[in-house]
Every structure is written in structure tokens, then in C-alpha cells.
Amino acid sequence: MGFEVTEEDKKATYVILPAYNEATRIRPVIEEIAEKGYNMIVVNDGSSDNTLDVIKESQSKYPDKIFIYSHMINRGVGVAMQTGFDAVLRYNPKYIVNMDSDGQHDADDLENVLEPLIMGRAQAVIGVRPLKDMPLTRNIANAIMNILTKVFYKVDVSDSQTGFRAITIDALRKININARGYLISSEFIREVNDNKIPFEEVEIRTIYTPETQAKGTDMAVAFKILIQMIKHRLR
Q: Among 65, 71, 107, 69, which residue's Cα sits nearest to residue 204?
């Protein structure tokens, strides 16, 4: 029999999901996580559609599992994650997971990313997407970002741009995230490495759809992140 997260550990876990204009995709994501028994902090990042209404409808079904925080305007995924990290400290969890809210991640992988934390092998986990399943443009951009992460932050990882990661509460209190946009992914890895937080990589399943392929790190985003990395280095 494989590893299973206990009900006690599920209650001690909070999943942070940034959401921007995900009205057509977010409901099954958060309701499946709630059905599995995990707590959630959903950060509505100034959505211009009815994402917030959809989240509230799901919250009415799972009032003790879904907690909503909302930005008045869109501030970027990095700031949304900062809001989530700040908020989660109020609930004193043991484990924190970050997932995308657009349906590209499989909720069944929550057990996989939590196992190294619960078993004490690591204090942070990076979910690695299979390269063979990744669209070519994303694959190339991700490879470039892996190289840049190694050059600028001195850490070698298989998937620097993953949106699926986990961390213990003690480790979270050690890191400092300031990125506004997609630099959040590389910055998380930098903070984990600089603070000597032991981490593991875990392979995850990724569900690609036309909507999820339209988002994330492409070549244009990779170039913007490079500029941000250079600016950070020159401070």
C-alpha cells in the first residue's frame, strides 16, 4: 500500500491558489481539493470576470475549507502568492502547498508533494512537470529559465517555473518573496537554496489544454524574468 496523507495532516495543510480570470475553470479545481479534505486559501487577483462569484459559490458548499482573499486590481501572480503566504500564517498550518487554479494540476498529486514533508525528508518540494508532455515553446522557455536560475541563483533544478510546490511552515517563515509576476517561481527556489532549506523534486502530472497553454512562461515571459533577475542582481 502506498503513502496516504492522514486526515490529521490534511487538516494541517493549506493549499494556496492564486486566481485571475478563472471563472470557467476554477470550480472543479477547488471543489475537488475540498472533497479530499484539504484547506484552501484562494486569492482572487483582481479578476475582471466573475471568478470571485464562482469561488464564493464553492465556498458556500465548503465554508470550513475555502478561505477567500481578494485584490481590488490585478497585481500579478507573485503578489497574489505573497498575499497567500501572509494569510496562511494566520491559520498556523504545518504544510503549505501552492497550485495553479486553472486545472493544469492534478489534485491527486497533493499526496506526492506532501510525502517528503510529512516523512521528514525535506522542508520544501518542487513539482516537476514531465518535459515530454510540455508544449515545445514552453519546453524551450523552461529550459532557458532553468539555466538562468542556475546562473543567477546558483541552484540546479529540473523545473524552475513550476506552479506546484510545497513547504513546511517553519521553512516558510525563513523565506522572503518580493516578486510581482512569474519571477516568483525562480525566487522561491532562490530563497529555499539561500536559506539552506532541504528540498526534493517530485514528478507531477500536468494537464495541458488550449487555455493552460496560453498562460505561463513562454519566450516573452522568460525575457521579462531575465530583466528582473538582472535588476535584482544589481541592487
A: 107
